Amino acid sequence: MLKYRAGLKNLPTYDVGEADWKIKLNANEFNMNLPAVVEDRVMGRLSRLAFNRYPGIEVESLKEQLAAAYNVQMDNILIANGSSEILEKVFFCLGGRNRKIVYPQPSFSMYKIYADLSGSISVPFDLNDDYTLDAEKFVDTVNINKAHLAVICAPNNPTGTAVPLRDIEYIAQNINCAFIVDEAYVEFADESAMQILSKYPHMIVARTFSKAYGLAAARVGYAIADSKVTTMLGKVFMPYHVNSLSAAVADIVYQMRHEYESRISMIKAERQRVNDELVKIAGVKVYPSKTNFILIKYDRAQQLNEYLYNIGIGVRSFGNAPRLDNCIRITIGLREENDAWIKAVRDFIVNN
Ligand code: PMP
Fold this sequence. Notes:
- It is a single chain.
- This protein has helices at 36-47, 57-70, 82-94, 110-117, 135-144, 165-174, 227-234, 244-255, 261-278, 301-310, 335-351, and strands spanning 23-24, 77-80, 100-105, 121-126, 149-153, 178-182, 203-208, 221-225, 285-287, 293-297, 313-314, 316-317, 327-331.
- With 352 residues, the chain is an alpha/beta fold.
- A 7-stranded mixed beta sheet has the order 2-8-7-6-5-3-4, with helices on both faces. The protein has a 4-stranded antiparallel beta sheet with strand order 9-10-13-12, covered by helices on one side. The protein has a two-stranded parallel ribbon with strand order 1-11.
- 4'-deoxy-4'-aminopyridoxal-5'-phosphate binds next to helix 3.
């Protein structure tokens, strides 16, 4: 019998239940590949890549661009394998035995897993019934528990709910521990914690190329924080942890980010259209979203999910997950895809 580390046996596996759907709307991906002009540049760059060398220049170049765009220094930035790696390392560096980590519930399911993995004590903080975050209560929970790390997801996955910047700033002002703001979906929202980051040296902003930049395959994310924080976090990454191919692609995508503006606007417009269609369907509760997905609640969610699955539409159902019972999260896809799934939801409800 192998003796695994304590807690591993009971740790859930991150499983989003992938299948070969005609319309894939389960993972908040972008449903279009690289814009053609970006693809040309990417292929050209990859054809000149030094495959025999460890990564270096590609990561530095991406860092340089991000530093210029956010008006920070390069040592304020950490590049990683998706924002997942940032989160994992932040939990590892600031959590640990007997240390508490406060994170919202319901929110990104990995927070609990990273807290468990780092041997920390999880303190889930209940969002309001409409999934908004009560900043005052959040601050109290962090302070009463003497937490070492506070986490928020802004806007929140899987509910789509915005966290107003004034609330983020209120939290930053009133807690002393490390405070990470997960901005995986921020490009679809109106405000960002980046606007106030320079005032708060205990704050870390995590971002990703996986969502708005449609680069989930490359696994590139980054954190921006005070250089004392990035220095400490930087110690726990593997050598050369971000590969040259991914960094080179992200570097080009970021250089050409204006190519993505119309796509992001399209998703936001579709989100509004989808919302307006869904609210007309009796029995479906729709939560306002500032992301590239939308959460609905319907009392036969399980059956609806099965119906969608069987006709080739993949969405994310939460079964009986705490505070997400009968909820389904659907990524905003292309116009035809959205038409198809809304029609399917309507058909299901009319016929059942
Ligand atoms: N944070 C949130 C809230 C997410 O939803 C996700 C992806 N599902 C991530 C972080 C991680 O994304 P990635 O590792 O692709 O950057």
